[in-house]
Amino acid sequence: MRERQLRARDMLRGDLEGEDLERYVEERVVMTSFEKMLGWARSNSIFPLTFGLACCAIEAPISIVTARYDLARFGAEALRASPRQADLIILSGRVSIKMAPVVRRLYDQMLEPKWAISMGACSSSGGMFANYAVVQGADKFMPIDVHIPGCPPRPEAVLYGFNKLQRKIEGNPDQGWRARYGAEGTEEWARGGPRSEPSAASSEAYELARELIRA
Amino acid sequence: MPDAPGLELIRGEIEAAYPGAVVDSGFAQERAVLSIDPAHLLDVLRWLRGRPGHEYKFLSSLHAADYLPAEPRFAVHYELLNRDRVERIRVKALLADPGEGALPELDSCVELFPTAEFQEREAFDFFGIVFRGHPDLTRILLPEDYVGWPQRRDFPVGGEPVTFTYNERNYG
Questions:
Q1: Which residue of B has its CA nearest to A100?
Q2: pLDDT digits over A79-99, tens only?
Q3: Range of the structural domain that residue B101 is part of
Q4: How far, in Å, CA of A78 to CA of A50, rounded?
């Protein structure tokens, strides 16, 4: 260790040359693709949405913020109170038919790239609530990336599911959920709904920026 | 809670004032119960609420029930409480099912007990019991566009069947 530090000092002085310098650089530089690096960075700085549905919402903070389990180890300790700033929604609890449109709206308000974890039996399958009031699985109305079983899941299970999600993010640089789930063509405008057109002011600004870049 | 003779005295007094109002009286789940004709509901509640010596002034709960094979089918329960003597009495308004499409109707007691407003909405929400004279009888817990009365016994349970190996082995 001490020897390495001395050699680092040598290199800063410019004393390290030739083969020594080659070896020094080889030891310290990692080559990778930009997508991989981006995926690595993304997977280690996930901002979950502060959001809870039912009893798993008591359990989720235990898995996320308590000192014993501490999702901060994986870079997801910053809970955001607005879906505009979040990129992970954890469905913690049963989704009632009255809540489903609200959950879907929150998911739609999140910016791409975004992910969703369904935590517990209820949001994954309806759980024990096989009745008129509860949606039988949250993936009926929104895409879910990771389902965590349990009633409630152990914090270890939540962490494992979260690590699975991280691996998914690293290995799957195609980030939009429509691309991930082959759902192109299901956009509202593609099904005949309203299409958002850019305003005149914003297209003028866009053209101006293009001209400035060309100049 | 009034004891058995006390309950019979109450029943006798109400019947003297409103003939035919009380259908039955007795004890169920350790609670004095007066089963009444819904036509006299407000009379009986007003009598129990205002009569000196009784004065059940607090409606601690209002809920509906569906006894499907039985006739009359529905009942709306009023749990009344006298907070001075800590005495409770249950008034049970028996409601017949009016048949296809029509909803059973009953007088609203919001004027007597303002706390009944939300509870009557809940009974309407889940059992489709219409309270005449309620200020705003809309769904309270289910979505506004929900179709059906899900707590009725003939309402399908819903959900999806899940094949557990236990169920397959024992019932499959």
A1: B143
A2: 889 999 999 999 999 999 899
A3: 4-171
A4: 9
